Amino acid sequence: MNTQTDIDEKTNLKNLTKEELQEFTEELGLQSFRSDQLFQWLYQKGVHSFDEMTNLSKDLRSRLKEIAKVPTIDYVTHQESEDGTIKFLFKLQGEEDHKVEAVLIPDFYEDGAANRLTVCVSSQVGCVFGCSFCATGKMGFFRSLTHGEIVDQVQYIAELCEERFGKGITNIVYMGMGEPLHNYEAVVNSANIITDELSIGLSPKRITVSTVGLTKQIKKLADERQPFNLAISLHAANDEKRDEIMPINNSMGLDKLKEAVQHYYDKLHRPITYEYLLFDEFNDSPEDAQQLADIVQWAPSKVNIIMYNDVAGVALKRAREQRLDAFMQELVSRDVTATVRRSRGDDIDAGCGQLAIKEGHPMGKTIRKN
Hints:
This protein is of the alpha/beta class. 36% of the residues lie in helices and 20% in strands. It has helices at 4-9, 18-27, 33-43, 58-67, 135-139, 147-165, 184-195, 215-223, 239-245, 254-268, 286-296, 321-333, 354-359; strands at residues 11-12, 68-69, 74-80, 86-91, 99-108, 114-120, 124-126, 141-144, 171-174, 207-211, 229-233, 272-278, 301-307, 338-341. The protein starts with a helix and ends in an 11-residue tail after the last helix.
């Protein structure tokens, strides 16, 4: 019988990149195609044990069970909105009882058939950056997810999409719990796995990585020529207001963000998306819109205006429709490409971190001062 120490010492294959998995099989003296078989079982078929890997011999499966493991995150619960949005809560392996969320956001054709199936995944347990409007920010930070744990979220929801809608997921956004670029390597590795033809095979053009504005990592994305889309959580168009709601801006202000954005575009010639939560009588005036229009001029870009999902205990509230209309009119007058993203899942805990907090979670590390 395996002891916990034996299990802990086994190689976690879902912590390995595709290249590292190839090295693992080579060290075992296996033929090179075995690493592709293992990769496919792990990330295309989403198996939970070596016994399910039926094109491997029984002897090889027994050998792998002795030296390796393939843990997966565990489904805990979900909430389903009247608009079709589904939020999932998962538990990670380990003694800490950490939980993370992922959200399926479906769009439908007029006949009710599924069109876009977007999955919003988490990259960390909590978040260190402490944005005042974010439920995850109130948790603080505990740990980053492995690339395997990120892909597990996608696989679980992809299987559900096939069963319920008869098609796979169409888009992925790294906009769930955590700051994706604070977990750079795991996020990039997970995206590379998701786009691999032996895995889910999603086009890189259908993956968006969001950030609060970590300038070093934005430049790194550009220098490494990562093929995924970049979204920047802006939420205020001047340093004074951004300092108030996003503590990261105190050390990485808009001047540094501008430099990083222009470096990114100069390297990749790929437009940037700015995410802009519209808060009532805070960042929704025509003057705010004018300042946002100035930021859009840094490099070719577009703006997603997001109608906020109100979070309990947060003073900021969703902007009223008449203020949204005036804001959009100002952007249009400045030739800004902007769309309005309506809140989804208002009738459930759809805001990042809300379900995890509801289920109970201690407080972690944060850069927020209050």
